[in-house]
Amino acid sequence: MNASTDRTFGYDDVAPEERRARIRRVFAGVAGRYDLMNDLMSFGIHRLWKRALIAEAAPRSGEILVDLAGGTGDVAAQLAGPDRRTIVCDPSPEMMESGRRRGLRRVDWIAGEAEALPFADATIDCLTISFGIRNVTRLRDALREIHRVLKPGGRFLCLEFSRPQAWLAPAYDLFSFQVIPRLGALIARQPEAYEYLVESIRRFPDQRELADFFRDAGFASVSWRNLSFGIACIHRGVKG
Question: Where are any strands of DSSP class E within 55-149?
Fold first, then answer.
């Protein structure tokens, strides 16, 4: 990393607990329009990215699956099935309440933070996280916790924004810094929140760096797959 994201909020340098508090306020403020903003910001492509994540997760009969930072439950709803248990685990009550109002079937909701997951050791078959890993307070601790709760052979799938190919970067930067905050102001009435989300992407580890963090946390068979020329990326690790 250029700087530890544990002590940043966008381009501001802050103490970890201040980072945690600010991020909680961001998601409390945008919860009601979070899904709409995702559609507008990505032109709906985030739905295709999440389908790719779910295909790689490949949920199986009898499994326990957790969608960490699962927010409104859009990923969990697609992971769920009558022959397995699917849980949204998220630190934001506002985000989960927005999801509960959708009346999703076969989805359980549990409040919890990535650094202190409310699950026993080696009890989860598959854990996914979509666009949430960069918002944890302490990245290394979160990855170790994810490793702890997975069963041997358990799968960790992480969908996150990453570094696009060089030819795409100028247009991507223009859209990110000029358009997204304006959409945040117009639709979600939270321009500062979306400025943070854009800035946090730029300060987060790139594909190779994040893969190294996975390995440091104990994951084996670490790999990644770029989506949309690297705008997003699916990272994968397995607990040995």
Answer: 64-68, 85-90, 107-111, 124-130
Is residue 202 within 8 A of residue 180, CB to CB? The reply is no
5-239: in CATH 3.40.50.150: yes
Domain extents in the chain: 5-239
- The C-alpha atoms of residue 202 and residue 61 are separated, in whole angstroms, by 38
β-bridge pairing 219-227 and 150-161:
unpaired
Rounded CA-CA distance 195/167 in Å is 23
Instruction: Note the residue count of the chain.
Output: 240
Are 162 and 233 contacting, i.e. CB atoms less than 8 angstroms apart? yes
Q: What is the residue-level pLDDT of the chain in tens, covering all 240 positions?
A: 334 577 777 667 778 888 888 887 777 776 666 677 777 778 889 999 999 999 999 999 999 999 999 999 999 999 999 999 999 999 999 989 988 998 899 999 999 999 999 999 999 999 999 999 988 989 999 999 999 999 999 999 999 999 999 999 999 899 888 887 777 666 656 666 667 778 888 889 999 999 999 999 999 999 999 999 999 999 999 999
Distance CA 99, CA 158 (A): 20
CA neighbor of 211 nearest in space, from 225, 199, 230: 225
For the chain, the distance separating the N- and C-terminal CA atoms, rounded to the nearest angstrom, is 26
